[in-house]
Amino acid sequence: MKRTVTLSCVIWTLLAAAAVCAQTGAPRAARPDAPAAAQPPAHGGKIESSYDGFARETRVALRRMGVTCEDVRGRRGALKGVCVSLQASLHCPGMQLDYVRGATLRLTFETKDWDSRHPAGERDLTAVADGETLRLGRMRLASQDVGEGWLAEDAKETLEVFVPYEAFLKLARASSVEMSVGKTAFPLREKNLAALRDMSARVNAPPREGAER
Prior knowledge:
12 strands, 3 helices, single chain, alpha+beta, globular
């Protein structure tokens, strides 16, 4: 009799344990009022964070992403066959993300018309962010290439400029941005602005006190 009772207790204990395990491992239904999981911004750009031991800084960098091949304008109207792409990086001294020293903006122009290149005196970068004009300084020539082959006509030039973090934030937070380099003007797309906002969200640095508003 004792063996029967003991065996019954063991069986009921095992069944109860199995039921608890099954409830624990089963997926729980989502609560109706539970917040949805945050989705990554759908801008299509690739952003990387890395530490540069040579420069002794942490960089949050947006790899090259397209801007436009259609809405590029010159002083005489639309420019055909000119494509613009954007790169950007935030520079944080040391191994931290709480202070941003500034940002580098890079613009690459690809064209079949060599006259569309930007000579040294026509590399001033200006941006109009939600109606506010930002004069971001004179860009320097980072690289200049031509297409492959003896008869290559394609020209590619990359210009860059270092800007204050506050200026970068104004670009990132704007709903519309029109940029111009010398005689060339073009708008940033929403995906470009979303990528800049994504970059700013990856650091903890607020705008510095006393910064220009």
